[in-house]
Each structure stands twice: as structure tokens, then as C-alpha cells.
Amino acid sequence: MTQTEQRKNRLHEAFTRKGMRYTKQREQIYNILLDKRDHPTAEEIFLRARERMGSISFATVYNCLDTLVECDLVRQVHIDRESTRYCPNLSDHAHLHCPQTGEIHDITLPTDLLENIREQLPEDFTLGSVEILIRGTSHKAQNSKAS
Amino acid sequence: MTQTEQRKNRLHEAFTRKGMRYTKQREQIYNILLDKRDHPTAEEIFLRARERMGSISFATVYNCLDTLVECDLVRQVHIDRESTRYCPNLSDHAHLHCPQTGEIHDITLPTDLLENIREQLPEDFTLGSVEILIRGTSHKAQNSKAS
DNA sequence: CTAGGTGCAAAAGGTTTGCGGTTAA
DNA sequence: TTAACCGCAAACCTTTTGCACCTAG
Question: Is the pLDDT of residue A126 over 60?
């Protein structure tokens, strides 16, 4: 089985597990996110998808992205009130954001740091998730890890 | 000099320092934020302002809020793509957000935690600011500190 | 076959803008 | 006096929705 077929099967399973169907639009959009992990917006994804598929509607892009999020394949990234960005990296990570260039890079923080945050919470607080956004200027960010 | 007058002077200075004028709309909106530190949206601020002032326009609320942000008197708080919220707490703090109730509470994190994050950054990265959003359920959040 | 998905266009929701009248300094 | 500000309505931009047609299972 080729790697592409494997990915396809993995996707298929993720969808059917939630009672949802496998469609080529969903597959393509997921592939777009995996192929270039640059946290694109829905519009950027729409443009890339149209290049690959010839034609797709904006609403479908949003629908597919919602589905991917719901199936735990992709996460949304929110920075201020800018357009929502999408990220296929499911591991715990923070985001480095350079307002000048608009670039976003993933950065893995040590687990004890998250543990440290957890300790600060009130007793009656059940932790859901933690989002860490680090703003700053990257002077030569070429070698950052965009996992 | 009364406390109100002192606040007024402080505001006046903050505005003129940036070449901006002191207006009653700006003052009222700032007071609304100080009086109830519950991270209101522009719409909530608009409603409270109308109660106090009789009449004010939505655009003015946005304009005034922008001014207050620019004069470093107030900060924006972004949660997902929900309406922007406003916060007069300028000290370093994280936000606890309960998606069920919509409540937001400020929580002060130990300085060494922020130091710890700083250490994780790439060499070529000049830190701007850090935003930490902690999502979860507060089962009886009455006694949380909303500083 | 049919529930679920796609595509289109129209609507919604939050925020911004242009501009004539108003006001702080 | 006059540059800055307010208020209104209209525009803007991202995202969502309704509905007819299509398609995976």
C-alpha cells in the first residue's frame, strides 16, 4: 500500500468514525494543510484547492474545514480578529507570530511548563485547553520548525 | 482633589501625551471598563454607555475604544472569533475562559513562568508579548479574582 | 436508494469608513 | 479659531445559511 493510500485510509476511518463521508474535497483540503504547514486562511486554502481541483466553492472549503476540525484532524488558530487559520499539527504547541511578516511558527514548549500552568489554576477549575500566542519579530526565521 | 478628579487628570494626561483630546465619551467608556471588570464587548459597552450618557453611537464606542487602546489604557482580549472584549488590567496576566458561561477571569501567573517561556524562544526572536488563554469549566467561579 | 455533501448566492455579524455637524483647546 | 471628534448610515470582510442538485455508501 502506498503512502498516499495509507493517508486515504486513515482519513476514511476518521470520517466514518464520526458518521461522515469521505469526499475528494475533504481529502484535498486536508492534503493542502499537510503539504505546506504554513497556517493558511480559508481563502488561501480555497485558492490552493482551486489550483488542484479546478473548481470548488468557498462554502465547501469552510464546510470541509469544519468537518476536519470536528474529526480532530485539524485545529483552528486564532490571532486577534484576523481570518481563522488552520493547522494540522495536533501536538501541544504554542504559536510564534510575527505581526510584520504575518508568519506563524509552531514551537513546542516543555511539558513541565504546561504542568506549571495547570498548578496555578483554581481548584474548582477543570482544564480544557491552553493556547499560547507569542508575538514578536523573527529576524531570520528560516530555520524555525513548522511541525 | 477627589478620586474622580484624579482619574480625570490621569486620563487627560494620557490623551494629550498622544496628541489626542479629552472627551466625555472617552472618559465614560473608560469608567465603564474600570467599574465592572467583566471584559465586556463593544456592544455591552455601548449599552452601558447609553444608560449613563443618554445617547452615544456605536461607531463612537469603537472609536473611543481604539483610542483607549492606543493610549495604553486598555487592552483587547480575543477569544476565538468572538466579539473583541476590552480589559483595563494592564498587568501581565492570563485569561481563564469558560465556554459554557462565557465568563472570563484574569489570572496572574508567576513571573518565572513567563521567564521560562522566554527561554524557549529562538535566538533571533525579539519578544513582543505573550497571550495565554486557558479554557475550561469553572464549577463555582464566584470567588475568582477579576482584577 | 437516500442521507449527507457540494455549490451558489444571499444573509449575518462584527467592525470600519466617509462625511456633515460639533467641540475641546 | 480649527483640528480633532462625534454620530449616522453605508460599506466591508469573514463566515454562515438555505436550498437545489449531486454522490458515497
Answer: yes
- Centre a 10 Å sphere on the Cβ of residue B25 and count the other Cβ atoms it contains: 16
Q: What mean pLDDT value characterizes chain B?
A: 92
Instruction: Please count the CA atoms within 13 angstroms of the CA of A146 that sit on its side-chain side.
Output: 18
Q: Name the residue with higher pLDDT: A144 or B129.
A: B129
> Counting Cβ atoms within 10 Å, is residue A94 exposed (0-12), middle (13-18) or buried (19+)?
buried
What number does CATH give the domain B91-146? 3.30.1490.190
pLDDT of B52 over the 80 cut: yes
pLDDT score for B34: 97
Q: Which nucleotide in the DNA or RNA is closest to residue A22, CA to C1'?
A: D24
Shortest Cα distance, chain B CAs vs residue A85, angstroms: 11
Assess B80–A contact: CB distance below 8 Å, yes or no: yes
Fold of A3-85: Arc Repressor Mutant, subunit A (1.10.10)
Beta partners for residue A133, in sequence order: A95, B131
Strand pairing report for A125-138 and A104-107 = unpaired
Query: What is the model's pTM?
Result: 0.91
B118 and chain A in contact, CB less than 8 A: no
